[in-house]
């Protein structure tokens, strides 16, 4: 933050703009803050009163609003910017949709997956409630085509996209969620095939903690707590949580827990950030993988750790190192483990080095990343000799297969920053040892034009490649067959858009076209066939409209209406061959239409309500099973609407809430034969210590 002036003896700091320095937040401790200008040009949903990373308490004096900073501001820059160098909001070239802390706390979401349902361009295909195994896709893509980052660190899972959003944090740990739609391989590597989602956790400067308790339908209970341990130059936050439920449908009970620690050090010459986390969940897997068996079971654990830094000076050098481990135990029949079970352990090690500098012709960045992805398994990978078997910890079983691949990437980017125009030119050189040892080039160009203040016109072109997951290549079961001969997916993305942003109204309209080659899906060619993974040539076209009105900017803090959002996305897919496909599991069953409407308003005094309605139409169909028997009936996914409501009584030290999900008790499917719960009620309290 740039210090513009000191006013009086109390040393009030007035900020005129962001400086994008991680250490700047420490300069505000114990001081009154005035914010002169807060641009939200890059935040589709960022509101002026919610763009901070800290709670600001409003007090009423003589019926006039006065805002006092009782907790220091942490105006962190965005992690996902669509470029490899940090750009000021007015110079950003790609639009990042942001779910702010205010929207997160106002929603009835029980997990990150539920929060992403509020974004029109995101397809959330839920298997179990409370974040139990969900596939997330962007712009018509599958869960395997998405990069998921935690505080800017890639935690995507090469085993399968089904497990990518097994997170070590709870909803109450999250500061905001940033969604970058469209190919982003030249920025985030080859796994950012259709987009990237960055989950940013809270970094609070006070020395307080919180406890959150909730309970409700189907024997569901949840608890989590956090504690901030901060010094003059060091921030630390420790959190953990546990939840359990009998489940809202057959064989959908679960137990899950998480622990997470994150921290930051701000020095004169270098800033350092670190994080480590653990998550565990075991759950009835209903008909998750085969409609013929409704007594499946799964047990997942995940570990992750990372350290990153940034030097200061003419050249900003930003190294990072990270590691994630995922363990998966699957039973086809939880009552008879010997019938069929799998054990998998995947490990990812990565080292990333990025550097950028600013000079007369703009900003230039160079970087490199080495990412090693490996798996040992009872079924996935190449067979091991018996003497090479690895014991599965805690079980009378062995890992009998393995595979490993290393992905090496080099990045080059230059950003031209003009008064009304920004041009970002980038190139990714990528080599994967599982494919061959030849480097392939993937270019990208992003352009934004700001004809007048508040308006932005942008266009982009990006190319990408994604390697198949280990599941795509190797998985075999009584109902599924992988394909070791799969080719990597390739795409070319074109996007154009228009955005308007003001304190009262924000709106965005965009259109995209993706030309896909060797796209991967799991399909049946006839009724007697098993599901096979195969490559297809497919093109996607789509449009998306997003709007928000902030009524408090019109009528003040006492306005009954607070804010309203309306967004809509349409996607169409064209397959470029004449093969007859009887059934599809993923890519062909894309979300064709999605409408999201939400309204936040005050009922009386400190009681607020948040309504959220989703109307979805999914392309495709599935073969209906009843009591484990194939009826032979092809059932379209069709159209359904879901209405959620959350009521909150908000006090400075605590919040009481009641919420209902699926108020109309509607029966629906996100994936074939995996029935979703009906009405789900929860209530609880959040206490600040």
**Helix content class:** under 10%
Count of individual beta strands: 39
Main beta-sheet annotation: 22 strands, antiparallel, barrel
Structural class: mainly beta
Strand content: over 45%
- What's the helix count? 5
Could you give the distance between the termini? 29 Å
* Poorly predicted spans: 1-79
Mean pLDDT: 86
Question: Gyration radius, to the nearest Å?
Answer: 25 Å
Shape: globular
Short description:
It is built from five helices and 39 strands.
Structure in words:
This protein is mainly beta. It contains five helices and 39 strands. The longest helix is centred in the first third of the chain and has 6 residues, at 101-106. The relative contact order is 0.12.
Itemize the secondary structure elements and their pairings.
Layout: E1 3-7, E2 12-15, E3 33-35, E4 57-61, E5 64-68, E6 97-99, H1 101-106, H2 112-116, E7 122-126, E8 134-138, E9 146-150, E10 153-154, E11 174-181, H3 185-188, E12 195-201, E13 209-216, E14 220-228, E15 234-245, E16 254-266, E17 270-286, E18 296-311, E19 315-331, E20 341-359, E21 362-377, E22 382-383, E23 390-391, E24 398-399, E25 401-417, E26 421-432, E27 440-449, E28 455-466, H4 470-474, E29 480-481, E30 489-501, E31 505-524, E32 531-550, H5 552-555, E33 561-575, E34 583-584, E35 591-604, E36 607-626, E37 629-650, E38 654-661, E39 680-688
Parallel strand pairs: 2-3, 9-12, 29-32
Antiparallel strand pairs: 1-2, 4-5, 6-11, 7-8, 9-10, 11-12, 13-14, 13-39, 14-15, 15-16, 16-17, 17-18, 18-19, 19-20, 20-21, 21-25, 22-25, 23-24, 25-26, 26-27, 27-28, 28-30, 30-31, 31-32, 31-34, 32-33, 33-35, 35-36, 36-37, 37-38, 38-39
């Amino acid at each position: 933050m740039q210090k513009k002036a000191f006013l009086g003896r109390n040393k009030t700091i007035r900020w005129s703009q962001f400086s994008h320095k991680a250490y700047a937040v420490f300069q505000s401790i114990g001081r009154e803050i005035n914010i002169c200008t807060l641009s939200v040009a890059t935040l589709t949903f960022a509101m002026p009163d919610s763009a901070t990373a800290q709670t600001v308490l409003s007090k009423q004096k003589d019926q006039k609003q006065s805002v006092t900073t009782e907790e220091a501001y942490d105006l962190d820059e965005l992690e996902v910017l669509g470029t490899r160098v940090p750009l000021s909001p007015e110079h950003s070239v790609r639009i990042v949709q942001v779910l702010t802390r205010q929207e997160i706390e106002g929603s009835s979401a029980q997990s990150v997956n539920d929060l992403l349902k509020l974004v029109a361009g995101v397809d959330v295909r839920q298997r179990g409630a409370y974040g139990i195994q969900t596939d997330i896709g962007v712009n018509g893509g599958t869960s395997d085509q998405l990069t998921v980052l935690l505080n800017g660190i890639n935690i995507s899972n090469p085993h399968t996209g089904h497990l990518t959003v097994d997170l070590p944090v709870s909803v109450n740990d999250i500061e905001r969620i940033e969604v970058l739609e469209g190919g982003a391989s030249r920025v985030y590597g080859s796994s950012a095939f259709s987009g990237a989602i960055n989950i940013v956790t809270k970094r609070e400067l006070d020395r307080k903690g919180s406890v959150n308790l909730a309970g409700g339908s189907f024997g569901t209970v949840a608890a989590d707590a956090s504690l901030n341990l901060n010094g003059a130059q060091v921030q630390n936050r420790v959190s953990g949580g546990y939840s359990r439920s009998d489940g809202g449908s057959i064989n959908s009970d679960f137990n899950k827990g998480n622990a997470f620690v994150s921290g930051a050090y701000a020095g004169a010459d270098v800033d350092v950030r670190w994080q480590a986390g653990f998550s565990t969940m075991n759950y009835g897997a209903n008909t998750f993988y085969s409609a013929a068996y409704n007594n499946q079971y799964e047990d997942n654990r995940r570990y992750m750790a990372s350290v990153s830094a940034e030097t200061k000076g003419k050249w900003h050098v930003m190294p990072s190192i990270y590691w994630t481990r995922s363990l998966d135990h699957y039973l086809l029949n939880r009552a008879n483990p010997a019938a069929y079970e799998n054990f998998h352990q995947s490990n990812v090690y990565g080292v990333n080095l990025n550097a950028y500098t600013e000079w007369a012709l703009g900003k230039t960045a160079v970087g490199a990343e080495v990412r090693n992805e490996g798996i040992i398994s009872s079924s996935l990978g190449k067979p091991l000799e018996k003497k090479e078997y690895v014991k599965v910890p805690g079980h009378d079983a062995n890992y009998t297969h393995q595979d490993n691949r290393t992905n090496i990437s080099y990045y080059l980017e230059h950003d031209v920053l003009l008064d009304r125009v920004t041009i970002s030119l980038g190139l990714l050189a990528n080599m994967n040892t599982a494919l061959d040892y030849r480097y392939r080039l993937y270019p990208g160009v992003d352009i934004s034009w700001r004809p007048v203040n508040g308006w932005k016109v942008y266009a982009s072109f990006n190319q990408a490649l994604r390697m198949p997951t280990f599941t795509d290549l190797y998985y075999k079961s009584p109902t599924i067959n992988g394909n070791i001969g799969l080719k990597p997916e390739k795409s070319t993305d074109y996007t154009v858009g228009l955005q308007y942003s003001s304190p009262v109204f924000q709106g965005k309209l965009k259109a995209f076209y993706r030309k896909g080659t060797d796209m991967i899906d799991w399909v049946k060619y006839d009724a007697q066939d098993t599901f096979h993974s195969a490559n297809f040539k497919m093109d996607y076209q789509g449009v998306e409209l997003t709007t928000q009105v902030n009524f408090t900017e019109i009528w003040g803090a006492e306005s009954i209406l607070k804010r309203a959002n309306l967004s809509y996305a349409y996607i169409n897919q064209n397959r470029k061959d004449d093969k007859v496909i009887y059934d599809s599991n993923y890519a062909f069953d894309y979300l064709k239409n999605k409408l999201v409407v939400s309204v936040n308003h005050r009922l009386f005094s400190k009681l607020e309500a948040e309504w959220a309605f989703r109307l979805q139409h999914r392309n495709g169909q599935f073969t209906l099973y009843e009591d484990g028997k194939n009826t032979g009936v092809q059932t379209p996914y069709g159209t359904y609407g879901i209405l959620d409501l959350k009521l909150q009584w908000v006090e400075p030290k605590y919040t009481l809430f009641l919420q209902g999900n699926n108020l109309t008790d509607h029966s629906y499917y996100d994936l074939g034969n995996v029935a979703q719960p009906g009405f789900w009620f929860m209530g609880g309290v959040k206490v600040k210590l």
